[in-house]
Write a structure and sequence with these properties.
It is built from 14 helices and 37 strands. It is an alpha+beta fold.
């Protein structure tokens, strides 16, 4: 079995080339002094008496953390800064092509996507993460953020990006690598190793508080009903439909459009008096009087999409706490005192109105607004997250749904918040099944990586739409928050209730849903995407036809990563209402028409004096394994 030490040795022996791109030209280095100890391999270059490049690989068990330092000093004392768009390139010729690989890339500003290949040369130039198979060994590569840059993988080249010209020196972690016998082990251990070795400076999900109780129940978001044309009367009228149908809405999210703006630029902290004539507090009070426990509200990481209107009421009130970006926007200051003062004032008003949590949008675009600010975009993003979350901690216990922030520069800058969107907006108007398939693939594959840092939010769904049965299954197995945003017609109670437990809480599994191991690299030859999750010692699985025609496949129990090979299980399929006995070596036949899906609950078989039994969840729920109300059920009563 290949190990990480062998991999690092191959990379070093094949040769490393470093190109430093300064504002006065490029310098190339490919001859290094190499020093080795038991746990560290370092490569350095000295130029005219100055150490200008140092690369180190720190080894800890099956993980290697690669760090990088570069200066631009030279003999005449000149010190030109690095280019912002690409400060340095580290070419690793020794990266060997795997048998299979899935890579995660940041194609445009706010979202990440993934694809498969067998060659590093064909990956996207802004790749953030790679999971690859070499025979019976799996390797995970995770690109990191240094002190003043972010790193992305472009083929076999690590691009070091400070984001702003003239930053110097460059320093920090660029990459961590872990190898293991199973893909999900490699990914999880790589995050832990990178954190342990200092490459990740904020807590992993497992180190943070649990997902807030505010999201335990079912939610409703105003967006698709109203978009920006919402109003107090409209919100109450639509919420009344849920109440009248007996749908237990525990939280409401008031989305974009609640405040006064001009050309998507904010003019005031306060609610629009035309839309909310009695104020924001009045409508929040009315919502809670209808039995809703929690109300959240939307705002942007830059206050609004294009910041704050110069000369507006808000500008005049907060101008000491604002900064002007190089592209002319006024946004909250990233100064730790001034920035916190801005958010504290706004969040204090929202808390006084009864708001319990926030959704913060437009996060990854923040780095673009800070290009040319004199500070690296890594530092600017870090500071804005610290300021925002310090205020959110004070007012909302840091209960934030992060959105449009899947760049690692954001993921590795959030100190406390826990939930983040892992896919684009769900808007199934044209070609609805294609819209769902796109959403499904984005969220399931992105969760493989993002779930190590946060709880994955798969976005709201529409319960009274042709995609609703598929969306409901995805939410049931997602391990995620669960909320709808139905336009006309109104909500579908029967389907919503199938995603909820007997106490109306969400059927929430232990983590995000992951592809079965045979679908991770997409080598099955079928158009069925199979995913799995777990709840304690129970397992769940679902399959979705993501193709254009009817297809069949097998669900191999061995491809459910956390299955116990020494146990037997009772499988229950929700739609077919059928029980069967399975074990690690079983294969369940699945045949699905276009757009169809199937969902299974797997209960481990126990035995007592009465015979074999399982702790069975409610079979009227999509995924009974996640229920808190299981009942001892003997096999003789169900088989």
């Amino acid at each position: 079995m290949m190990n990480v030490r062998n991999m690092i040795d191959e990379i070093i022996s094949a040769g490393i080339t470093v190109r430093l791109n300064t504002i006065k030209g490029q310098r190339v280095y490919n001859r290094f002094d190499v020093k080795r100890s038991d746990d560290v391999v370092s490569l350095s270059v000295t130029d005219s008496g100055f150490k200008v490049v140092e690369i180190s690989f720190k080894l800890d068990g099956d993980t290697a953390l690669m760090s990088f330092m570069a200066t631009t000093r030279c003999a005449d004392g000149a010190a030109p800064g690095f280019k912002g768009e690409l400060g340095a390139e580290i070419e690793l010729l020794g990266l060997v092509d795997p048998d299979e690989m899935r890579y995660y890339f940041h194609e445009y500003t706010c979202w990440t996507h993934s694809a498969t290949t067998r060659s590093f040369d064909s990956i996207h130039p802004r790749t953030q993460s790679v999971i690859a198979r070499y025979g019976d060994t799996h390797m995970h590569m995770l690109m990191l953020c240094g002190d003043n840059f972010k790193a992305v993988l472009n083929g076999r080249i690590i691009n070091v990006i400070p984001g702003t010209d003239n930053i110097r020196p460059l320093a920090g972690a660029v990459l961590s690598i872990t190898m293991a016998s199973a893909p999900y082990t490699a990914i999880a251990e790589n995050f832990k190793g990178a954190r342990r070795l200092g490459g990740i400076k904020v807590p992993l999900k497992e180190e943070r508080k649990p997902l807030s109780h505010k999201f335990n129940g079912f939610g409703w978001c105003t967006w698709n009903v109203f978009e920006q044309d919402l109003s107090a009367d409209g919100i109450i009228a639509r919420l009344s439909e849920f109440i009248e149908k007996g749908i237990p809405v525990e939280w409401v999210l008031i989305d974009d459009g609640w405040f006064v703006h001009e050309n998507e630029t904010l003019k005031s902290f306060y609610a629009d008096k035309i839309k909310f004539p009695n104020g924001l507090k009045d409508v929040v009070d009315k919502i809670k009087a209808m039995g809703v426990k929690y109300v959240g509200i939307w705002h942007a990481f830059t206050a609004y999409w294009y910041g704050i209107v110069e000369g507006s009421e808000l500008y005049e009130e907060q101008k000491e706490n604002l900064t002007k970006t190089p592209n002319g926007l006024y946004i909250p200051s990233i100064d730790p005192q001034k920035g916190f003062c801005f958010w504290d004032k706004w969040h204090g008003y929202l808390e006084d109105c009864g708001i319990d949590f926030i959704k913060v949008d437009n996060q990854s675009n923040f780095a673009n607004t800070m290009i040319g600010s004199g500070m690296s975009t890594r530092e600017a993003v870090w500071l804005n997250h610290q300021n925002l979350e310090r205020s959110a901690q004070k007012h909302f216990d840091c209960d934030i749904i992060n959105c449009m922030g899947m760049d690692m520069i954001n993921l590795f800058s959030r100190p406390m918040s826990l939930a983040t969107r892992t896919g684009e907006d769900f808007y199934p108007v044209e070609r609805p099944l294609d819209s769902f398939t796109y959403l499904l693939r984005e969220n399931v594959y992105n969760s493989v990586v993002q779930d190590n840092m946060c709880h994955c939010d798969y976005d709201m769904w529409w319960s009274n739409h042709e995609t609703a049965p598929y969306c409901a299954v995805l939410r049931a197995i997602s391990g995620s928050v669960n909320y709808v945003s139905d336009p006309e017609p109104g909500p579908n109670k029967e389907l919503i209730m199938a995603t909820l437990d007997e106490d109306n809480s969400n059927l929430r599994c232990d983590h995000a849903s992951y592809p079965t191991t045979d679908c991770l690299y997409e080598g099955t030859g079928h158009t069925l995407l199979k995913v799995w999750n777990k709840s304690g010692d129970c397992l769940g699985a679902a399959a979705f036809n993501v193709g254009d025609e009817k297809d069949s496949d097998k669900l191999y129990m061995s491809t459910i990563f956390e299955i116990d090979p020494d146990k037997e299980y009772i499988a229950y399929e929700y739609f077919g209402k059928r029980f069967q006995r399975v074990n690690y070596n079983s294969a369940i036949d699945i045949e699905l028409d276009v757009g169809q899906n199937v969902i299974f609950s797997f209960y481990p078989i126990e035995k007592d004096d009465g015979g074999e039994y399982v702790m069975l969840g409610n079979t009227n729920k999509l995924l009974g394994i996640a229920s808190k109300y299981k009942k001892k059920t003997y096999l003789c009563d169900i088989l």
